[in-house]
Amino acid sequence: MTDFARLSASVDQVSRYHDKKSQKGKVGVGLNTHEATDSTLKVIVYANDLMSYTLKVTQNAPKHYRFTFISRLQNLSMDIVELMLLANDVFVTKANIHKTAEQRIHYQQQALSKLRAIGYFSLEAQKYDAIKLKHAIQMNKQGANCIKFLQAWMKSDRVKYQNIYHLLQQE
């Protein structure tokens, strides 16, 4: 299966939209457009919510900021979801722990950096009136929530990989 096919399958799992009539035209607090399933991590669902919210609040931005702040915010939000999906698709086993664990951690760290960047750029965009203050604040809240869950995921992986590594040392 190609990387694109795996990403498409993962995005299809995450994309569970609520009733469109209740969400149509609303740019309210939280804009939760996706549901967590047993097979998806909460952090990916929250990142997808952040992406949906970012795309929604930036669609009517002033023209003179569309190719600076707005495109940057939109691209960062999509990159975050992509990196988390890629990290989740890396399969780590005892046989390939060094290579794949490094790759998974790399994707997670990149997503963390981009989450911090989206928080910074949303506040900068608000300073120049590219987005409203309430939208910048909400993007930062959602970003902080994603950071919290991403760090928990990274910590969980770290413990899991250390246990596998110790088992390999004992053999």
Helix content: over 70%
Shape: elongated
pLDDT < 50 runs, ≥5 residues:
1-29
Mean pLDDT, all residues: 82
Question: Total number of β-strand segments?
Answer: 0
Oligomer: single chain
End-to-end span in angstroms? 33 Å
- In N-to-C order, the SSE pattern is HHHHHH
Mind telling me the C-alpha Rg?
Answer: 18 Å
Structural class designation: mainly alpha
- Determine the strand fraction and express it as a percent band: under 5%
What is the makeup of the main sheet? none
Count of discrete alpha- or pi-helical segments spanning 4 or more residues: 6
Report on the architecture of this protein.
- The chain has 171 residues and is mainly α.
- The protein is 74% helix and 0% strand.
- The protein contains 6 helices and no strands.
How do you describe this structure in short?
The protein has six helices and no strands.
Q: What would the keywords be for this entry?
A:
mainly alpha; 171 residues; 6 helices; elongated; 74% helix; disordered N terminus
